[in-house]
Structure formats: C-alpha cells, structure tokens
Inverse folding.
C-alpha cells in the first residue's frame, strides 16, 4: 500500500510542477490535460508504474484539479507539494463497479486482501486508504 501512496504523491507533485510551469508560460492548464500528457508522454518513461493501479494517478490528478478549483474560488490556499510520510493516502475504485465490503477481510481491487479490526458491511464505489501514525485506514 505504501507503493500506491507514493505513486499518488509522485503524480500529484509532478502535476503540480507541470501546472506551475505551464501557468508561468501563459497557458491555462487543467487536470484532464495534465492526465493526458502524463498518460501519453511521461508514464511510458517509467516502467515501474505498470505494476501499480492506474486509478491511483487518475485520482491524484482529480484531487489536484479540485485543489486548484477551490483555490480559484477563494475557498483554499494555493496547492502545495506533498511530502513523504505526512498523511499518505490514495484512492481506488473498481472501474465503475461497486466494491462490496463484508466481514473482517476484504478483497480490494489492485491491492489484494486487507484485514480490518472491525467488521465492515458496506457497498461503495471508491475507497480512500490513508496512513496515520503508521497504521492504514479505509475511508468509505
């Protein structure tokens, strides 16, 4: 799970640096264009990305777009680069299909089997997995 969190952080930071560079050059970037550039030009340069879920980087760019949207609406500060080990998190989904959580152990798409301390009975479309103080938490 730490690899997926690092992948999401790397993509978010890459997108933020490209956004800043494009804005300085007079362009108006958005999350969709950044994702297209990443998918077509940058992702083929890094073979280690093939082992991780593509949903992680898609949600990273979606979160970056939302951060800039909030900034331009005056609801938040300018987005900052994410640091390793501080609130590591990533979001996954099941390609539009619902994710069913039953009991103590759950099979998550692209991650595998995850055990929880409490039984969970729920159906959801996406799950955010975050690390706080060394422990991983599921957010439905």
């Amino acid at each position: 799970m730490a690899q997926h969190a690092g992948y999401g952080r790397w993509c978010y930071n890459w997108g933020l640096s490209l956004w800043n560079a494009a804005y300085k050059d007079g362009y108006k970037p958005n999350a969709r264009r950044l994702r297209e550039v990443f998918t077509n030009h940058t992702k083929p340069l890094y073979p280690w990305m093939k082992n991780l879920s593509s949903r992680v980087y898609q949600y990273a760019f979606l979160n970056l777009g939302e951060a800039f949207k909030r900034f331009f609406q005056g609801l938040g500060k300018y987005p900052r680069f994410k640091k390793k080990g501080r609130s590591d998190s990533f979001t996954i989904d099941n390609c539009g299909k619902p994710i069913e959580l039953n009991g103590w152990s759950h099979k998550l798409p692209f991650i595998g089997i995850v055990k929880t301390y409490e039984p969970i009975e729920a159906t959801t479309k996406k799950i955010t997995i975050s690390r706080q103080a060394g422990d991983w938490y599921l957010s439905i």
About this structure: The helical segments are 2-24, 31-42, 54-72. The chain has a mean pLDDT of 90.
